[in-house]
Amino acid sequence: AQKVTQAQTEISVVEKEDVTLDCVYETRDTTYYLFWYKQPPSGELVFLIRRNSFDEQNEISGRYSWNFQKSTSSFNFTITASQVVDSAVYFCALSEYNNNDMRFGAGTRLTVKP
Amino acid sequence: GAVVSQHPSRVICKSGTSVKIECRSLDFQATTMFWYRQFPKQSLMLMATSNEGSKATYEQGVEKDKFLINHASLTLSTLTVTSAHPEDSSFYICSAPDMYEQFFGPGTRLTVL
């Protein structure tokens, strides 16, 4: 069975600090997909990234970067030079190849203070 | 990108009434849709998989007689919360996959008084 663990329940940083959100996953499949979503107070999920299990390249998108390491089953997310608008709950999620349903981690509530 | 809509966005009802939530894929067909529930300050939990033309598949612990799912067409799935009680108050989110991605609706906030 698939499982996603986000050990950090809440993180608080001051604006312009870098912050890393951790995600550790478990799956028996060799083919799977990992995701990060942002959920602002409005509740709507904002898609950030999708990564398949065969692509271990790290990715950078503006101030966001992701570090995928199969050896440690981790898919960590770093925000560089954080901003107040980054304040939200961030979810890591896993979807196995043969199942389209997605399993979410518990989420990390990030607060960026001015 | 593909869009999934939900209606209503918010609903307040009295205990004992039934509430229907619609999930539509606006520009693609979805033979499968998923329903999630999110209690305050908690994660999204998969409730059920809605299958067009066949019965829904429910996750363990979810009462199928209480949460009725109908996937009547390739673009519409409905979730009916029957005889709602205050403990059913939650944020309900649907999603629909196409070949490459999972698209989430904006969610429906249900409050049962």
Structure description:
The complex is a heterodimer of chains A (114) and B (113). With 114 residues, chain A is mostly beta strands. The mean pLDDT of chain A is 93. Chain A has strands at residues 3-5, 10-14, 19-21, 24-26, 32-39, 46-52, 59-61, 64-69, 74-79, 88-96, 103-104, 108-113. Chain A is built from no helices and twelve strands. In chain A, a hairpin with a 4-residue loop joins strand 8 and strand 9. The N and C termini of chain A lie far apart (41 Å). In chain A, strands 2, 5, 6, 10, 11 and 12 form a six-stranded mixed sheet that branches. A four-stranded antiparallel sheet of chain A has the order 3-9-8-7, with no helix packed on it. Chain A has a two-stranded antiparallel sheet with strand order 1-4. By secondary structure, chain B is mainly β. In chain B, the strands form two sheets. In chain B, strands 2, 4, 5, 6, 9, 10 and 11 form a seven-stranded mixed sheet that branches.
Give a short summary of the structure:
With 114 residues, chain A is mostly beta strands. Helix content of chain A is 0%, strand content 54%. Chains A and B meet through strand 11 of A and strand 4, strand 5 and strand 9 of B.
